[in-house]
Each structure stands twice: as structure tokens, then as C-alpha cells.
Amino acid sequence: MEISHSAKFWGAFLSFTIFLGVYSDFNLMVASTEQTVLSSAKKSLAKFSEKMTEKAWGNVGAIAYHAGDRLMIDNNAKPQSLDEIQKEYLRPHFGDLVDRVMVVYSAVLMEDWVAASFKINVGRSNAQVYGHRVYIRDIYRPGDLQQIVLLAHELYHCKQYEELGSLSKFGYHYFFQYKKADRKYEKNIFEQEAFKFEKFFASWLANEVRVNGTRSRNRRAKKNSDMSLEPENESLDR
Q1: Is there a contact between 161 and 167 (Cβ–Cβ < 8 Å)?
Q2: pLDDT by residue for the chain (238 residues), tens digit each?
Q3: Which of 149, 186, 157 is nearest to 173 (CA)?
Q4: How far apart are CA 97 and CA 158, in angstroms?
């Protein structure tokens, strides 16, 4: 039987309402009776969501991604700018985007993007992006090349977000494409593009380091060179 547009809309709305109830507080304790009711509702919605269109999933994503951004801000520390070494490696590929992106390290991540039965399973992710904010599970590692490669992947999502123009639009299109990819994370065009760039960047970075050395090593060498000239300069001044 064909599902009406109205039913699709209210199904999406109800799903998101449950999402807010479950995830508005990471430490929320739910009574056993409430868990039973919620479990029953989620099972029913799971069956319903299988029949929903890409557009319906997109509508859920537009709301859920925006809400997720707020939750991540509330449950994590304040972000910091990219450091100078990270910017030097990433700027050739992202331009002044590197000046707008902020990063939270040792972040508490949402393991799944969940809107009741609308669930994007990302496994145990190392990082997530909400707009210009990048959340990384690991601690801050200055000069660490693997962390810079991870940042390259996440900045590609920041680039996608900027191209679409808003949190809601990014959420809509990400969920739309996830449904279109038969709800397989790795087949989502957004992730395929980001992983393709990550592979390219890792190769570029390896070659850059092989030819020119690391930025941190070059900085130390320059600093040592400047320091070695100081006595001579001082004697000349005298």
C-alpha cells in the first residue's frame, strides 16, 4: 500500500521526537517501563522507516544533524584552532577554510546518528564533523602526521558543509544519500568523496615529508639556525 506524504512526514517527526527524548542528556536514566514502551515504538518505526523514501530520510537528517550539533557543543570542551603545522599542510588543499575550522580533542562522540528507527551506523568512529567543528576522539598530538591525515578527511566534510550552505542542508543531503546507498555508511557518496581525498592527501603528505622533511623538523632547524647567528650579530653590533 502506498504511504501518503503526510504519513511519511509525521513518521519522520515522531522518530525525531524520540531521538530528542533519548539523546537530550547523555546521562539520562530511563525507567524499565519507559524502556519497554520506547523499545516497542522503535521496533514499529523500524519497519516503517524501511518503506520511507530518500526524501523522508533527508527531512529527518535536516533536523537531527542540527540537534546533534547542539548536543556535541553541550557535551564537549571548547574547541581550538588548527595549529600552524596543521594549517601549513592543509592550506594548499583547503585554502582559508583552515582558519574557520575549530577542533575538539578527547571528544565524546555520538557512535550512531540516531533518530529513533532512522539510524546511521558509523561503528566506533575516530572523528565527527558538525559544521565547522571537528570532534576527535584522540588527544591532541602536535605534529602527528596521522592526525593530520584524519583532519584532512574531516575538513573535506567541512568543505561539503560549506558548499551546501547550512547544517540543515548538510544533514538533509547526508541522510538522503545514506538511504540512497541502501543505508551503508561506506557507500554514502559523502564518505566516498572524503575517503578518496584522504587517500590522495596521505600520498601527497608522504611525498612532501620525504622531499622536504616534516614542518616541525624544519621549524626546529630554522630556530636553531637563527640562534646560532645571535652571538655573531651581537658582536657586530658592538
Answers
A1: yes
A2: 444 444 444 444 444 443 444 334 444 443 444 455 445 545 555 555 666 899 999 999 999 999 999 999 999 999 999 999 999 999 999 999 999 999 999 999 986 555 444 556 655 688 999 999 999 999 999 999 999 999 999 999 999 999 999 999 999 999 999 999 999 989 999 999 999 999 999 999 999 999 998 766 555 444 443 433 344 443 333 3
A3: 157
A4: 8
**Which of 132, 231, 127, 150 is closest to 197 using CA atoms?**
150
Q: pTM of this prediction?
A: 0.72
What does the alpha-carbon distance between residue 53 and residue 13 come to, in Å, rounded to a whole number? 14
- Which is nearest to 89 in space by CA: 138, 162, 148? 148
Task: Give the rounded distance of the alpha carbon of 17 from its chain centre.
Answer: 23
Q: Give phi and psi for 198, each to the nearest 5.
A: -60, -45
